[in-house]
C-alpha cells in the first residue's frame, strides 16, 4: 500500500473510535476492548505492507480486530474456571428473559406477531436502525449477546462457539434461537413501532 506515514496515522486515528466501539460491543469489557483496539492499531501500522489498497484499509483493519477478538475468547476459554452456581443463575436469567413466549411445557404461548420486514435493505443503510439494533443486542442477557455476536458478527462456526463458551450443541442452538427471538421482538417494538 502506498501511504505516507502521516496519512496512515491519520487514517488509523479516524478508525480508532469505530474499532473500540466494535470491540467493546463484542467483548463487554471496556478495558479489554481498549487493549485489543491498541493491539489492532499497532498490528495494522506494523504490517501495512500486507494491505493491498487504500479502499480496503477499513476492512483490512477490522479483519485484524476480528481475529484478535477471536483469539481473546479462545485464550479466555483456556484460563476460565467454572463457578457452578453462576451457571444455574445464568440459566434462570435466560428463562426469565423469554418466559412470556413459552408455556410451562415448552410450547409457544401465543402465535408470534411478525413485523413488516418488507424492505430490510433500507433498514441496514439507516444509522438509526444500527443504533436500535445495538440497543436491542445489549438488552439481551450476556451469554445470549456473546453467542449471537460470535455467530452473526465474528462468523464463528457453532462447534468453535461451543468450545469457547463451553456449551453443548443443544444449549448453543437454544441460546442462539432465543437471542434471535429476543432481537426480533425488540426490533418489532423499537424500530417497526408495532406495539401489542
TrEMBL record:
Q: What is this protein called?
A: RNA polymerase sigma-70 factor (ECF subfamily)
Q: Which residues form the RNA polymerase sigma factor 70 region 4 type domain?
A: 133-180
Presence of keyword Transcription regulation: yes
The protein's matches in InterPro entries, at most eight in alphabetical order, are given as:
RNA_pol_sigma-24-rel, RNA_pol_sigma-70-like, RNA_pol_sigma-70_dom, RNA_pol_sigma70_r2, RNA_pol_sigma70_r4_t2, RNA_pol_sigma_r2, RNA_pol_sigma_r3/r4-like, WH-like_DNA-bd_sf
> By its UniProt entry, which NCBIfam families does this protein fall under?
Sig70_famx1, sigma70-ECF
Gene3D superfamilies in the record: 1.10.1740.10, Winged helix-like DNA-binding domain superfamily/Winged helix DNA-binding domain
Its family remark reads: Belongs to the sigma-70 factor family. ECF subfamily.
Query: What UniProt keywords apply to this chain's record, in alphabetical order?
Result: DNA-binding, Sigma factor, Transcription, Transcription regulation
Give the species: Hydromonas duriensis
UniProt-listed PANTHER family: RNA POLYMERASE ECF-TYPE SIGMA FACTO, RNA POLYMERASE SIGMA FACTOR HI_1459-RELATED
SUPFAM superfamilies the record matches:
Sigma2 domain of RNA polymerase sigma factors, Sigma3 and sigma4 domains of RNA polymerase sigma factors
Please list the residue ranges annotated as the RNA polymerase sigma-70 region domain: 13-77
Q: Its GO biological process terms?
A: DNA-templated transcription initiation
Amino acid at each position: 500500500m502506498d501511504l505516507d506515514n502521516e496519512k496512515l496515522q491519520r487514517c488509523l486515528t479516524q478508525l480508532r473510535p469505530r474499532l473500540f466501539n466494535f470491540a467493546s460491543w463484542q467483548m463487554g469489557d471496556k478495558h479489554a476492548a481498549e487493549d485489543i483496539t491498541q493491539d489492532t492499531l499497532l498490528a495494522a501500522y506494523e504490517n501495512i505492507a500486507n494491505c493491498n489498497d487504500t479502499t480496503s484499509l477499513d476492512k483490512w483493519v477490522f479483519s485484524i480486530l476480528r481475529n484478535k477478538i477471536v483469539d481473546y475468547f479462545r485464550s479466555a476459554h483456556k484460563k476460565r474456571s467454572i463457578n457452578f452456581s453462576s451457571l444455574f443463575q445464568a440459566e434462570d436469567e435466560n428463562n426469565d428473559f423469554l418466559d412470556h413466549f413459552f408455556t410451562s411445557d415448552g410450547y409457544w404461548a401465543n402465535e408470534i406477531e411478525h413485523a413488516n420486514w418488507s424492505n430490510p435493505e433500507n433498514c441496514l443503510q439507516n444509522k438509526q436502525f444500527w443504533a436500535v439494533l445495538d440497543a436491542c443486542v445489549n438488552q439481551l442477557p450476556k451469554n445470549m449477546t456473546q453467542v449471537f455476536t460470535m455467530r452473526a458478527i465474528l462468523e464463528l462456526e457453532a462447534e468453535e462457539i461451543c468450545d469457547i463458551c463451553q456449551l453443548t450443541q443443544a444449549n448453543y442452538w437454544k441460546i442462539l434461537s432465543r437471542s434471535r427471538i429476543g432481537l426480533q421482538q425488540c426490533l418489532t417494538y423499537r424500530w417497526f413501532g408495532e406495539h401489542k
